[in-house]
Amino acid sequence: MRVKKAVIPAAGLGTRFLPATKAMAKEMLPIVDKPTIQFIVEEALNSGIEDILIVTGKAKRPIEDHFDSNVELEMNLKEKGKTDLLKLVEETTDVNLHFIRQSHPKGLGDAVLQARAFVGNEPFVVMLGDDLMEDRVPLTKQLMNDFEKTHASTIAVMRVPEEDTSKYGIINPGEEVSKGLFNVKNFVEKPKPEEAPSNLAIIGRYLLTPEIFEVLAKQKPGAGGEIQLTDAIDTLNRTQRVFAHEFNGKRYDVGDKFGFMTTSIEYGLTHPEIKVKLKDYIIALGKELSNEAKPKK
Q1: Where is the Nucleotidyl transferase domain positioned along the sequence (predicted)?
Q2: For residue 182, what are the contacts with CB-CB under 8 A and spacing of at least 6?
C-alpha cells in the first residue's frame, strides 16, 4: 500500500519563542520570507504525499489563513503585474490541506491520535515542524522508499553527540538489515548519556502503520504527564517490527532561538534576493568581531 497521507502536529504553545508567540503561531515564524511550516508542507509534496492534515490548537488560525486564498491580495498583485509575487502566493493555496484542533495540549501522542479518522486504515507519515531537513532525496521520501520494501513502521534517526542524548528519544539498535536501516530493540526517552543505548536520536519524521492508533488510545501519560509518541512506538515494536532509518543529510533545528537564527542565516545565504549582501555583511562582521577579540597592546 502506497503512503499518501501526512500529519503535521502544530498545536504546541511555542513558549520558547515568547513574547513573539503570545499571539502568533510559532509555525508561522519566517525563515527569511517563508514560514517554517511551509518548508514541512513542501517536503511532504516533494515526497509524493497527496493529503495533509495539520493538527492545530488555539491561536493557530494564521496557519489556515496562510494556506487559504487571499483574493484581494492576488487581484492587487495581478493588476500591478507582479507575477513573481503572485506565483509565490498561489503556491501556498494549491495544496490539499485539512485541519483539526487538539482541544487540550496532552502531548505529541495525543496530537497524532487526533488524525485517526483522517488516516483510516492506511500507513502515514508524521512530520514535526521543529526539524527542517535537507537532502538530495527528501527524508520523508526516504522513509516511504523503505516502507515499500519492509511494509513496517520506520522512524528517522540521526547521530548526535553523546552528551546530547538527554534531549532526544534514543533507539537501542539491533541488526543493520541494510545500509542505514536498523531493527530496533527498544526506544528510550531522553536517557542520560551514561545510560543511553546508542547516540542514534529520533528526529522529526516518522512513518507509521495504522495500528499505532490502537496503542495511542490506551497509552498512559509518560514524561511531563503527556501522551508520548515514543512510548507508543516502543509498545508497537513489541507486536510488529519497527525500523530506524539513519538520516545523513542536513538537519536544521528551528525549535529553539539559536537553531532558528542559524537556520535563517544559512537559508539567507542561498536566497537569490539577499545572499550576496548577507555574505558580504557576515564577512565584514566577522572581521569586526575578530578585531574586537584581539588583545589590546
Answers
A1: 5-260
A2: 157, 171, 173, 174, 175, 176, 200, 243, 244, 246
Residues 262, 191 within the same domain: no
Question: 3-state SS of the chain: helix, strand, coil percent to 5?
Answer: 40, 25, 35
* Positions in the chain short of pLDDT 50: none
Domain count, the chain: 2
Distance CA 47, CA 42 (A): 8
Sign of the C-alpha dihedral, residues 219, 223, 229, 232?
Answer: negative
The reported pTM is 0.89
- Reported as a single tens digit per residue, the pLDDT across 145-182 is 999 999 999 999 999 999 999 888 899 998 888 888 99
Please indicate, yes or no, whether residues 181 and 213 belong to a single structural domain of this protein.
Answer: yes
Mark whether 215 and 232 lie in a shared domain.
Answer: yes
What is the predicted pLDDT for the residue at 297? 60
Domain that holds residue 284: 257-297
Which pLDDT score, from 0 to 100, does residue 125 have? 97
- What's the pLDDT at 92? 65
CA 93 – CA 48 distance, rounded (Å):
17
Q: Are residues 220 and 278 in the same domain?
A: no
Burial of residue 153, with CB atoms counted within 10 A of its CB: 0-12 exposed, 13-18 middle, 19 or more buried: buried
Q: Is residue 220 packed enough to be buried (19+ CB in 10 Å), middle (13-18) or exposed (0-12)? A: exposed
Burial of residue 103 (number of CB atoms within 10 Å: 0-12, 13-18, 19+): exposed
CA 218 to each of CA 18, 132, 189, 223: distance values in angstroms, whole numbers, following the listed order: 34, 31, 19, 16
Strand partners, 54: 8, 99
